[in-house]
Amino acid sequence: MERSGIPQAILKGVIAIFMIAFLTSIVFAFLLKFTTIAEDSLQWIITALSFIAFFIGGFISGKSGGEKGWLLGGATALLFSCLVFLLQFLGYDEQFSLLQLLYHGGFLVAACFGGIIGVNIATNKT
After folding, report:
1. Would residue 109 count as lying in a domain?
2. DSSP annotation string for 41-87
3. Could you list the residue ranges forming a coiled coil in this record (predicted)?
């Protein structure tokens, strides 16, 4: 694989994570607005969907990159986490809490696994 494909693969994964997060946010916003569901009852579902989104983002970056899926998935998660940190720090003047660091560590692991599986599925077509 050529070196110019690595940033494109990572960018595809980050875009996928943002798209999934945006779409699920819209769905849950409508659920919370038009039903009697409480926000607290959806906490674990939203957390699980977040891990799935990172897995899919890592999968897409690994499949697009074709090699070193753990590295592509990890870079995808790290880029997303850096963007979230910059938004939170520069926009809201807040730092990551310990709980957020744990979540983003889990997101990193999920994206790495997604990248590994994405590379293996991409290379098993022969």
Report:
1. yes
2. GGHHHHHHHHHHHHHHHHHHHHHHH-S-HHHHHHHHHHHHHHHHHHI
3. none
Q: What are phi and psi of 35, to 5 degrees?
A: -130, 180
Domain encompassing residue 102 = 5-121
Domain total in the chain: 1
* Per-residue pLDDT tens over the stretch 109-119: 999 999 999 99
pLDDT in tens, 85-126: 999 888 888 888 899 999 999 999 999 999 999 998 866 655
Flag whether 126 is in a domain.
Answer: no
Model pTM? 0.88
